Structures are given as C-alpha cells and as structure tokens.
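User: Design a sequence. Structure:
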C-alpha cells in the first residue's frame, strides 16, 4: 500500500539521503521524493495500527502494542511518525447526531451561475464557513457542490437556506433532499492486511 502525502516532519537524524530518496535508518519504512511530495510505503504493522486506531482512537499505547506484538516504546515511535507524516490527521469524538439534538440530515445540491461569480474561491470559502455544513464536496458534471448539513428542525433549515446559503453571491439553484434513514455511516478507510 502506498500513499502520497505532503513532506512529513521527521527528526533529521532518522533519515539518510540516498540520491533522490530518503530512507529511515531503522528500516521501518522509506520515504521517496516524488513530484514534490513523499511517497510513503506502509508496512503490515503500520496498516494494522491504522485499522485499530480508526476503530478505537482512545486505545492506550500499551494495549495497542500488546495487540500488535511490539514493545510500547516502538509502538509510540510508530504512531508518532504516522501522525507527523499526516497519515493520521487528527483524533476526534464522533457524536450521535440525533442525541446531540440535530434531528434532520439534509443533502443539498448547489449549482452556480458562472456569469454571476466574481470569485469561485470566495464561494468555496463561504460554503466551508457555514457551521451547519458537515461536508462540502465540489463535483464534476451538472452539479457544482454537494453539502451534507445537520440541522435541528425545519425552522432551522429554513433560516439556514434563506439567511445563509441564499446570501452567497453566485448560487443559482439549491435543491434539498432529507435523509429518511442512514443505512451506513463510517469514517473508516479499511486498509488491506495480508491475512485478509
């Protein structure tokens, strides 16, 4: 498995320059300079660590080391390197949306009027600033953006569309569908392990 990532922040003493590549002295993995970015090769231990942490981000270092079968100091070093390289971007608490008071989940399709847009970047910035928006995806084809929006009730939705979304210059069409049931909701990227 290979992931292309921005250059990681790693201690210089761990790296030896070999032509156009960087290789860690402890052979845990290698980083190869490629088109201005590093190509990072994850070994099977890294993959197992990532699969476990995606399911339980609060697992202790000691328990994780025991499950994987390496020493706690070696585990801590691996996790820190996965964090500093950007493969692990952050740790969060995932809330139950409805129990948190957000009863409605809306999928909103947004189309732009190109001749009314002074700056596409400004539209993007305005969309991502909306606190109700969980995800903002720019798409190809006839649709410009897809928004996943969590709202408390219909009054909140109406205020969101009328007072916030419609106020962004350049938006031509807003179409909303409300989610009846969430059959699957996951944040996990399943990485393939050799024994799977």
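Assistant: Done.
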């Amino acid at each position: 498995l290979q992931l292309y990532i921005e250059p990681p922040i790693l201690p210089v003493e761990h790296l030896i320059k070999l032509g156009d590549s960087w290789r860690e002295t402890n052979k845990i993995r290698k980083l190869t300079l490629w088109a201005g970015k590093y190509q990072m090769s994850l070994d099977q231990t890294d993959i197992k660590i990532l699969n476990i942490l995606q399911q339980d981000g609060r697992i202790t270092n000691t328990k994780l080391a025991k499950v994987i079968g390496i020493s706690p100091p070696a585990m801590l070093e691996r996790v820190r390197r996965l964090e500093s390289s950007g493969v692990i971007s952050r740790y969060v608490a995932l809330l139950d949306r409805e129990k948190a008071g957000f009863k409605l989940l809306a999928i909103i399709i947004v189309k732009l009027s190109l001749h009314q847009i002074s700056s596409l970047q400004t539209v993007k910035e305005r969309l991502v600033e909306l606190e109700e928006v969980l995800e903002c995806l720019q798409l190809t084809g006839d649709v410009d953006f897809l928004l996943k929006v969590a709202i408390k009730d219909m009054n909140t939705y109406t205020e969101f569309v009328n007072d916030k979304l419609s106020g962004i210059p350049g938006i031509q069409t807003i179409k909303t569908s409300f989610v009846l049931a969430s059959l699957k909701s996951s944040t996990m990227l399943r990485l393939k392990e050799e024994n799977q």
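Strands lie at 2-5, 15-18, 21-24, 30-34, 37-41, 104-112, 133-138, 145-151, 171-178. Confidence is low (pLDDT under 50) at residues 1-37.
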